[in-house]
Every structure is written in C-alpha cells, then in structure tokens.
C-alpha cells in the first residue's frame, strides 16, 4: 500500500461513497455454527460435552445481561454451563475459592470471571487465579505474555473479533497504517499486538495522545475503544479506510459507539455498526476459545 490517496477500500479522498457495513451478527452466526457442528459431531462420537463456568459478582445490570447471553449461546452450541452468582460484598478469599473449584473441575473447560468486579476485589488477582488453560477470555498474564511473544494460547475475544471483522473485508492488513485509540489490557493493547502480528504498522493512542485528530486522520485501519459516545468525529476518518468501533455506550436509551457513525460511514470503505458489529462477535469468539480449550483437554485426557 502506498502512502496517501486511496487506502484500504479504494475510495479516493473527498469521495462520499458510503461505507459497506461489516455485519458482526452474520459473522458471529457463522462462527457459532462452526463451533456447534464440531461439538455435535465429537459428542456424537462419545466425547463429553464442553463446559463453561461463568462467575458474576454483584447485580450490575449490564454485566448480568452479558453473562446471560454467554450462558444462552453456550447452550445453543451444545455446551454445558455452570453459573456462579456471588453477592456484591463477597470476599476475595471466597471468590478465589470459587475460581479454584472451577479450575479443579474436569468438566469445566472455560472460566469467565465477568468484569468489572466490585471495588473491594482485586481484578488482576482474580484473572491470574484462573487456570491459564481454562482462561477463555485470554486475559491471564501467561496468555497475555504468549500474545506478546507470539506463542500459542487463547487470545482475548474482543481484539480477535476486531481482526476477524477486518478480514471479512478482504483487505490485506500487511503494511497498512493502523491506529488504535484506547490502551486497555482488555482491548487496545491486545488488538495492537494482533495487528502487529498481521504486519500492520501500529500507533496506539490514549487520553494523553498529542493531536489525536492527526493520528486518526492517518489511519488506513482505525480501531476505537475508549467508552465515550461519538467522541471521534466522523470528519477525522480517512476516506477509504476500515473502521472498527468497539465502544458500547447507552445514550437516550440507544446503544451508540465511540465514533460519530453517520459521518464516518460516508468516508470509510468499511465500518462496523453499533450495535451489531464487534459485540456479537465477541461472544462467538469466546465460545470458539472454549471449544479449543475443550479439544486440548480431550487430547490430554486421551493421552493420559
Ligand atoms: P477502558 O476504560 O479500560 O479504557 C479506555 C481507554 O480509552 C483508555 O486507554 C483511555 O486512555 C482511552 N481514552 C478514554 N477517553 C479518551 C479520549 N477522549 N481520547 C483518547 N483516548 C481516550 O475501556 P475498555 O477498553 O474496557 O472499553 C472501551 C469501550 O469498549 C467501552 O465502551 C466498552 O464498553 C467497549 N467494549 C466493548 C466490547 C465488545 O464486546 N464490543 C468488549 C469490551 C469493551 P488512558 O489510558 O490514557 O486513560
């Protein structure tokens, strides 16, 4: 890809072509179907079912909705699920005991500790307590290290979803200028590593980035994960670019992303909607990670 002019999708500067929407729901359905078929055929051949444990602390309504969705979709692809609902004032010791029980349970292949946790609990310690082989969120320090050093291991679900959705466009990421806005361990940092793995040149921005507009305007590939409704003006989007909006914000009862979608879609070549973009894919990737952990466990059970 040469610098300047046409970028990922071929629309030239100033052209208001209208982006193609990247359909996260359709992609998620395809991933779920692939996982369901794999589970069905192996269980029919005598394998035990995969098991997913969900741990929810407190009664945050958004977290409860996310967990309910994970449990429902796990059932739809033929997995067992086991839910642990803990009170908001649970102690760290009690939480660690539940995680340890799940670690020891041979019928459990994946463990999700739904974040965020209430303030009295140490999130890093909870994530680090999960057996890395059952860490289907890909957030354990061992698995983050594997991502950083290019070794195999479960990758974080939302970043994988972002790259998967980019791949649906057919755009080759190698050599493209990728700008990621947001540097969380959950999204921004790992998606930067995945893009680097795919040979993009990556700039990772945050709240103290000087001249964010200039950075965003240079992006052939733009990923925004800041949690601030429509904070990135659509006019900053480079014509012909691939735009992935990770943000989920509720405004006047509606879900909106971190990018001003209506203007951005006039400039980008491809863009994810909110809702219906990264969100549905994230759960599908979680199920695929659980399937992969189950396959690894079945392989070690049969080798034992
Ligand atoms: P965090 O709050 O952990 O991180 C936000 C990041 O954005 C920080 O690095 C912060 O910078 C940066 N930031 C905040 N405001 C600005 C700004 N105005 N300009 C530049 N950078 C800014 O958020 P998460 O990464 O956990 O989540 C981000 C968004 O993605 C949320 O809306 C969340 O709901 C959504 N999300 C969606 C998922 C999905 O499945 N679709 C999954 C996970 C998250 P600094 O580090 O300097 O403070």
Explain the overall architecture.
- By secondary structure, the protein is of the alpha/beta class.
- Among the domains are: 47-131, Leucine Dehydrogenase, chain A, domain 1 (Rossmann fold, 3-Layer(aba) Sandwich), CATH 3.40.50.10860; 156-280, Rossmann fold.
- The chain contains ten helices and eleven strands.
- It has helices spanning 24-44, 61-76, 92-104, 123-129, 141-149, 157-167, 188-197, 212-217, 261-267, 278-303; strands at 20-21, 51-57, 80-86, 110-113, 177-181, 201-205, 221-224, 242-245, 249-251, 254-256, 270-271.
- A hairpin with a 2-residue loop joins strand 9 and strand 10 (254-256).
- The chain binds NADPH dihydro-nicotinamide-adenine-dinucleotide phosphate (NDP).
- Residues 158, 181-184, 186-188, 205-208, 212, 225-228, 231, 246-249, 278-279, 282 line the site of NADPH dihydro-nicotinamide-adenine-dinucleotide phosphate.
- NADPH dihydro-nicotinamide-adenine-dinucleotide phosphate (NDP) is lined by residues 158, 181-184, 186-188, 205-208, 212, 225-228, 231, 246-249, 278-279, 282.
Topology:
Layout: E1 20-21, H1 24-44, E2 51-57, H2 61-76, E3 80-86, H3 92-104, E4 110-113, H4 123-129, H5 141-149, H6 157-167, E5 177-181, H7 188-197, E6 201-205, H8 212-217, E7 221-224, E8 242-245, E9 249-251, E10 254-256, H9 261-267, E11 270-271, H10 278-303
Parallel strand pairs: 1-11, 2-3, 2-4, 5-6, 5-7, 7-8, 8-11
Antiparallel strand pairs: 9-10
Helix pairs in contact: 1-10, 2-10, 6-7, 6-10
**Mind telling me the CATH superfamily name of the domain at 156-280?**
NAD(P)-binding Rossmann-like Domain
Overall SS class: alpha/beta
- Element order, helices and strands? EHEHEHEHHHEHEHEEEEHEH
CATH class of the domain at 156-280: Alpha Beta
Biggest beta sheet attributes: 6 strands, parallel
**Radius of gyration, taken over Cα atoms and rounded to an integer in Å:** 20 Å
Low-confidence stretches: 1-6, 10-16
The helix content is: 40-55%
CATH architecture of the domain at 156-280: 3-Layer(aba) Sandwich
Shape: globular
Would you count the extended β strands for me?
11
Mean pLDDT: 94
């Amino acid at each position: 890809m040469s610098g300047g002019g046409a970028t990922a999708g071929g629309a030239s500067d100033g052209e208001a072509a209208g982006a193609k929407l990247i359909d996260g729901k359709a992609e998620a359905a395809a991933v779920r179907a692939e996982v369901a078929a794999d589970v069905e055929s192996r269980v029919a051949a005598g394998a035990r079912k995969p098991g997913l444990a969900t741990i929810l602390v407190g009664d945050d309504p958004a977290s409860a909705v996310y967990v309910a969705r994970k449990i429902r979709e796990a059932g739809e692809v033929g997995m067992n699920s086991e839910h642990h609902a803990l009170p908001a004032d649970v102690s760290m010791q009690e939480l660690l005991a539940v995680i340890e029980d799940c670690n020891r349970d041979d019928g459990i292949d994946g463990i999700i500790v739904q974040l965020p946790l209430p303030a009295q609990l140490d999130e890093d310690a909870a994530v680090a307590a999960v057996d890395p082989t059952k860490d289907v969120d890909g957030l354990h320090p061992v698995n983050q290290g594997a991502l950083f050093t290019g070794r195999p291991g479960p990758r974080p679900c939302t970043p994988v979803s972002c790259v998967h959705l980019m791949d649906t466009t057919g755009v080759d990421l190698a050599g493209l200028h990728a700008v990621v806005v947001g540097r969380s361990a959950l999204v921004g940092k790992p998606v930067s590593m995945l893009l680097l793995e795919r040979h993009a040149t990556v700039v990772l921005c945050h709240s103290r980035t000087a001249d964010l507009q200039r950075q965003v305007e240079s992006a052939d590939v733009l990923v925004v994960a800041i949690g601030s409704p429509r904070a990135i003006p659509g006019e900053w989007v480079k014509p012909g670019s691939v735009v992935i909006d990770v943000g989920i914000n509720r405004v006047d009862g509606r879900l909106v992303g971190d990018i001003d979608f209506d203007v951005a879609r006039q400039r980008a070549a491809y863009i994810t909607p909110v809702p219906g973009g990264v969100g549905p894919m994230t759960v599908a990737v979680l199920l695929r990670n659980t399937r992969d952990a189950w396959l690894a466990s079945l392989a070690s059970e049969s080798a034992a």
